[in-house]
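Reopening closed ticket. The problem is back. First fold of the pair:
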Amino acid sequence: MLTLFDTDCQLLYNRCMKYFLPCFIAAIIPLCASASYNPMFGDNHKNSVSVHLGQGTGPGSLFKLVNPGQWDFMPQTMIMAQYSQPMTLFRLPARQNFNVVQNFGYNSSRGLSFLGVGISWDVVPFSWCGFYIGGGLGPYMRDSHDRYVSSRLVFGEKLFIGKNISDKWRAEFFTLHFSNGDFTEINRGFNFTGMAVNYSF
């Protein structure tokens, strides 16, 4: 049984995650990176194509992106093709993307398959020795709605850690969340984690 102390601690944790953490991240971002070199593209490359392959980690909130302890692997597999161009965002290296995503739901997730297209923006606040850490956000339109999210419009939020393999090739580990921001009553969300391979040219 939860005590009053446990409940207060949980409330404090929730408030910190909701308010303090985003403000802290926003404050340190300008200190961590420079847009003079974009680690997601390499030297003088203006385009890239990526293939993302991810496994479903169950429905749930946005915080599943940063809390692997909540991952519950589900019978859903996601593949996403992405075309990107370099840009800057508040002087940080970034990229703008066009995405085509297909989620395959099977077994207990039958009926949760969807095809979606969207645009997104990724920014890298930290890079060092060929590694980089970033996050992204963008709207997507799906071809269906389902028992997880009862709308065709969803928003994708992504966190990723990348490594430059060569001037043209990169590999990224990512976590990805789709939901509609509680625009509808049913908004359980989709979560995925997986790997991406990126070729720049």
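Second fold of the pair, where the issue appears:
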Amino acid sequence: MNQIVKPISSLAAHYYTDPAVFEKEKRGLLAKTWQLAGHISQLEKPGDYFTFEIAGENLFAVLTKQNEIKAYYNVCQHRAHELVTGAGNKSLIVCPYHSWTYELTGQLRAGPNVNVVPGFDKSNLCLSSIKIENFCGFLFANLDPDAAPMDDWFPNVREELTAFVPHINSLKPVEWVGVSEKCNWKVSVENYSECYHCQLNHPMFSTGVVNPSTYNIQAQGHCLRHTTECQNLDQMTYDINLDDNQHAAEYSSWFLWPMFSFQVYPGNILNTYHWLPIDHENVVVWRGWYTVDGADSEAVRQLAIQDRETTVEEDIHLVQSVQRGLNSRGYKPGPLVLDPKGGVNSEHSIKTLHEWMRAAVDD
């Protein structure tokens, strides 16, 4: 007698609609994964610093006089005042509250009248540091002191990305635009991580850039790697020199769980997605575009506009409709379409995402 196989269902609605789930993600998932902090171009000279936030924590990165990149919690070890705001350059970190002063290495240098305190030993006082890595010019931080290196999380990505964008370490942001979406961050990430919907909903992307019949997404550690053949390169809105690089005629994407993606368009043009959740049903998706040394490029700006007016705009309506549906009492999780051969019409990448999402909340 043949055993009946029960299809794998998508996640229950409460993973996307329950504020308590989001709070648990902030305390666990977001505090224990590699999150984008900024770009190396923000730390060009010793003393350059910028602030950023992960999992509700106020943080800052700084370039020391020894040209080391450090990152710290933005809190004085004396009476907990915030140390810096925004971005700038400082030779020392001086607390605005009581002038306790720290070296860029985080070590306490001095504090008014501290020498009168019996047993005071400034060598024992240092800013609380966090892990930070330079990953192809992008700075990622992790609040987990025991976190494995990014190359363990995302095997081969550094090498692949460098092959697709050989000049990646010379890039600087030329445009950085945030788009608000009224949905849970996971809804937006799922939409990005499958092309099952592309032909019906993204005519420009599906006919002018990629060949949907060859689109595939495979897990690579905690990375989802998108690959496809391209089509109609002669009709692109910008010039492509196919002799520039072995991957000049290709499109590819590397989604780094949980909230960042590198995406390379034909012509070795890099852009990025960075999801920043506001609450359980609102997220801002920041789209970055880059050129060598940040030089202005009409071609890149026009591609960014085209992308926002087509794929991005189309996706906003999709994800917001999904969020409304998840809040409906009429929704019951349906089966995922899992094709053993993979390909564009399979949701095996969503199955992988759901495994990661469950693990982040249910453990």
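Update: turned out to be a display glitch only; the data is intact. The mean pLDDT is 91. The CA atoms of residues 173 and 288 lie 7 Å apart. Please close again.
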